[in-house]
Write a structure and sequence with these properties.
Layout: E1 33-38, E2 48-49, E3 55-56, E4 63-69, E5 73-78, E6 81-82, E7 88-89, E8 95-96, E9 103-110, E10 113-118, E11 121-122, E12 128-134, E13 141-147, E14 150-155, E15 158-159, E16 165-174, E17 181-187, E18 190-195, E19 198-199, E20 206-212, E21 219-227, E22 234-240, E23 243-248, E24 250-251, E25 255-256, E26 263-269, E27 272-277, E28 280-285, E29 287-288, E30 292-293, E31 300-306, E32 309-314, E33 317-318, E34 324-330, E35 337-343, E36 346-351, E37 354-355, E38 362-368, E39 375-381, E40 384-389, E41 392-393, E42 400-401, E43 405-406, E44 413-418, E45 425-429, E46 432-438, E47 440-441, E48 445-446, E49 453-460, E50 463-468, E51 471-473, E52 481-482, E53 486-487, E54 494-501, E55 504-509, E56 512-513, E57 528-531, E58 534-541, E59 546-553
Antiparallel strand pairs: 1-59, 2-4, 3-4, 4-5, 5-6, 7-9, 8-9, 9-10, 10-11, 12-13, 13-14, 14-15, 16-17, 17-18, 18-19, 20-21, 21-22, 22-23, 24-26, 25-26, 26-27, 27-28, 29-31, 30-31, 31-32, 32-33, 34-35, 35-36, 36-37, 38-39, 39-40, 40-41, 42-44, 43-44, 44-45, 45-46, 47-49, 48-49, 49-50, 50-51, ...
């Protein structure tokens, strides 16, 4: 429901250094100190970038993409390095690790030879290679490969023994601590699981949906033991740590508790659904919903149907019956729970077993506050919508309402609303209409210390403003588009992108236009704070394309945000 603010696609963006700023001069003689570094060299003549291949490292300090010339001449550019020319690059490549800024891609030397390139270093050639994955910490990698009609897994550059086939879908993964690796393979017309290089002594017809526990000590997967034939179905079991549990006609998602002590899954047995917890069947009914553990793992919940009625079970305690139940959630501290239900064509939200008010049309966007003491959700009737909180239903009905947001300290609750269809939007902060009304209001962002709140708004169809604690930033400029707001860790500074006109973009710091202007910023490019007084982001210029790493230091004398939430 929230109006989304996006920056225009990158193909239209170019960089111009030190362009004049529209409107009046900035208020302070003290400016952020900007350093610009070119990350990618100009492309060789005749090459064009493939836009969908563009990737950024998680820390936004590396850029990688594929460029082509005449289809069969392909190169990979990573910062200031250019690869050799390849026949083709594997789709969705290159990839970055989630940590450590490592990168990789699979490339075809010709139609019959594939190489894996990790951090610029090529592997031997293979007949086939695919399914490249980095470990969660970025220190390790693995991919499937084939030679001489045999398949194997290459882990950290070392191939495993060869198999008749490797099953990669939902069966090819590192453990959360990155120390273990699981894959499934075909061997002698049977399927076997391989964990840490060791084959599990349990063969079956098929393996799917492998999972590691959060602490990486346990693993489990679903194994098809046999097909009963003549349309009689199949026989499955869950294998945990190499040991099979009971057999079932079908098994649904395997779920570990956050502390890894419990494992649960729903399954079908004799045409009925059962809930299995640590290998023991604890419930049997016609319908059973997926299991949910609280964050402290002390509570276990699931939905079940009995005699055409639906219930929520929380630690074996049954809720009152409903026609439908959905969107169950535990609070952040695990002490509370909520779910949405339907009864007699009315929608209701249940919190800690207590029913809220009825609504005719829908209930949505339930949220607990970060401290778990508060909650908010939207309820819709035929005549409009309301926000309901722990204090009760809001007194006013609105034509439309947006998603509610809690501040990090849980003190503030904000949402946008409009009183009549097609009218302007208002900000409702802590139960009161605050600030001015606007044609559109974006997503609310709080500073980490909850002292400040920012949101981009449309003053009219040609001018956007940044509303910070109710004060309008950029009011003296005619910015057409504003990017998302980003607060410094201490909440003293707010940074965002702003477009004055086509090909002229700026960085705004606390309502001050930073030195230098640019022709654009990539769609969705964040501003990353490295500490309280420095940040970086990326921009682009052509011909090239050339990516510019922008690093900014904010002087100690630069004015801090003077406003504050009240």
């Amino acid at each position: 429901m929230i109006q989304k603010f996006f920056i225009i696609v990158f193909t239209l963006f170019f960089i111009t250094i030190a362009t004049s700023v529209p409107g009046k001069d900035t208020n302070s003689s003290v400016k952020p100190v900007i350093k610009e570094t070119s990350l990618c060299p100009p492309l060789p003549e005749g090459y064009n970038m493939i836009p969908d291949s563009l990737k950024f490292s998680p820390d936004l300090r590396m850029v990688a993409y594929v460029a082509f010339k005449e289809n069969t001449q392909n190169i990979v550019v990573v910062n200031n390095t250019v690869s050799p020319v390849y026949y083709a690059i594997y789709p969705d490549m290159p990839v970055f690790s989630s940590q450590k800024n490592r990168y990789a891609y699979l490339a075809y030397k010709n139609k019959d030879q594939v190489v894996a390139v990790v951090d610029g270093k090529p592997s031997p050639f293979f007949d086939i290679a695919d399914n490249f994955v980095f470990s969660p910490d970025g220190s390790r990698y693995a991919f499937r490969a084939q030679k001489n009609n045999k398949q194997f897994v290459v882990i950290d550059g070392k191939p495993t023994p060869a198999y008749d086939g490797i099953l990669v879908k939902n069966n090819f993964l590192f453990s959360p601590d990155s120390k273990r690796f699981f894959f499934a393979a075909y061997k002698d017309k049977k399927c076997v699981a391989v964990i840490d290089g060791r084959e599990i002594n349990h063969s079956c017809n098929f393996i799917e949906d492998a999972e590691f526990s959060p602490d990486s000590r346990h693993f489990a997967y679903k194994a098809k033991i046999k097909s009963k034939g003549l349309g009689l179905g199949e026989e499955w079991c869950v294998v945990k740590d190499g040991k099979p549990e009971g057999t079932y006609d079908k098994i649904f998602d395997i779920v570990f508790s956050p502390d890894s002590r419990y494992m649960a899954y729903p399954a079908i047995k004799d045409r009925k659904l059962v809930m299995v917890l640590n290998g023991r069947e604890i419930a049997e009914n016609n319908m059973i919903g997926l299991p949910v553990f609280s964050k402290n793992s002390e509570k276990f919940a699931y939905a079940m149907q009995e005699n055409q009625n639906w219930f929520i079970m929380v630690n074996n305690k049954k809720s009152q019956p409903f026609d439908q139940v959905y969107k169950f959630s535990f609070s952040p501290d695990s002490s509370r729970y909520s779910f949405i239900a339907k009864e007699d064509k009315k929608w209701v939200c249940v919190v800690d077993g207590a029913r809220g008010p009825d609504f005719e049309t829908a209930i949505d966007v339930f949220k607990f506050s970060p401290d778990s003491k508060r909650y908010a959700y939207a309820g819709v009737n035929k005549n409009g919508a309301r926000i309901v909180t722990e204090k009760g239903i809001s007194t006013q009905t609105y034509a439309s309402i947006g998603e509610p947001y809690f501040s990090p300290n849980s003190r503030h609750l904000v949402f946008r609303a409009r009183s009549k269809p097609g009218g302007k939007w208002s900000t409702i902060l802590d139960g009161e209409k605050r600030f001015s009304d606007y044609h559109a209001i974006g997503k609310y962002e709080f500073s980490p210390d909850a002292r400040h709140m920012a949101v981009p708004v449309f003053a009219n169809i040609t001018q956007t403003l940044m509303l910070v604690d109710g004060q309008e930033q950029c009011k003296d400029h005619r910015f057409q588009i504003l990017g998302n707001p980003y607060f410094s860790p201490d909440g003293d500074y707010l940074v965002y992108h702003a477009m004055a006109k086509d090909n002229q973009w700026h960085l705004i710091v606390n309502d001050e236009v930073a030195p230098n202007s640019y022709n654009g910023f990539m769609k969705g490019t964040p501003v990353i704070f490295d500490d309280e007084n420095s940040f970086h982001t990326l921009a682009l210029r052509e011909p090239g394309p050339e990516f510019i790493l922008i690093e900014a230091d904010i002087p100690a004398s630069f004015p801090k945000l003077s406003s504050g939430l009240k």
